[in-house]
Amino acid sequence: MFNAPISASTKLALGGMIATMLSATIPAAQATDISLVRDGVLNVCTGGDFPPMQYYANPGDEKLVGFEVDVVDAIAKQWNATTNYVVGDFKGLLPSLGAERCDLVASGIMVTAERLKAYDAVPYFISNVVMVTAVADETTKTPQDLSGKVLAIEAGTTYEKTAADLNAELAKAGQAPAQIQTYPSASGVIEQILVGRATATITQDTTAAFRIKQMPGRLQVPYNYGDGETYGIYLRKGGDNRAALVKAIEALQSSGEMKTLLQKWNLPETATNVKHTTN
């Protein structure tokens, strides 16, 4: 067959058509410039000690696992990025975000008005606060039963205020306060109960369920506060980053991937049915 030469103008037109066709096949997330991603990496600050949200499955492991890790990894994948987890003490996570040592904080961290003064957040998961005691403890059934007893709390968490409110209530009733002791990690708090140094701790139902499954016959939940509290993924204020994060989370919800991850970690299927606004 005779091959006629192609003119320069025709080549230019064909090139434009091909470029248009290729760009149409690129996923929207790939075509969007996400400033949270730096050189293809999404840096995420986390405590790394809040199972089943994020934790190390075995001593010496270098890779984090957990529901929240899976969620953030899935978000990064939408943005054609990989994740780098910057692990530190809970109290230092938001300051690290402010200092730009990371661009997101995902660590089972509650959305509170006080935190929102300095940072932005996207609520995405709801959980209930519970009290955890040793199975052998048959006398500590409610927070008021902690009068004069040791209450272990993870430092920097909202549970510190819950404990302080309890002591204010006990004082008003003329009862001895609980002896509040703080520890840098959730696992350290649980250890105090297991060895008998503390009577109870206050934590989330997610963590309690994981610990009870991990150590059957040793821990129990005698009291559920009942008021759902919301976890959020935190980021610095400004720009379109929050909108991009909301869009990524909603994509996980609509695709069914979020439901699959909840089932994987034995979490309630309704736990992520949360409005993403902070108003």
Describe this structure in words.
The structure is a single chain. The termini are far apart. This protein has 10 helices and 9 strands. The chain has 279 residues and is α/β, with parallel strands linked by helices. The longest helix has 18 residues, at 8-25. Residues 1-32 have low confidence and may be disordered. It has 2 domains: 28-128 and 229-264, D-Maltodextrin-Binding Protein, domain 2; 129-227, Periplasmic binding protein-like II (D-Maltodextrin-Binding Protein, domain 2).
Total DSSP helices: 10
Shape call: globular
- Secondary-structure element string: HHEEHEHEHEEHEHEHEHH
The overall pLDDT, averaged over residues, is 88
**End-to-end CA span:** 69 Å
- CATH structural fold name of the largest domain: D-Maltodextrin-Binding Protein, domain 2
CATH class division of the largest domain: Alpha Beta
Q: Evaluate the radius of gyration.
A: 24 Å
Strands, count: 9
Give a short overview.
The protein is an alpha/beta fold and 279 residues long. Helix content is 36%, strand content 24%. The chain has two domains: 28-128 and 229-264, Periplasmic binding protein-like II (D-Maltodextrin-Binding Protein, domain 2, 3-Layer(aba) Sandwich), CATH 3.40.190.10; 129-227, D-Maltodextrin-Binding Protein, domain 2 (3-Layer(aba) Sandwich), CATH 3.40.190.
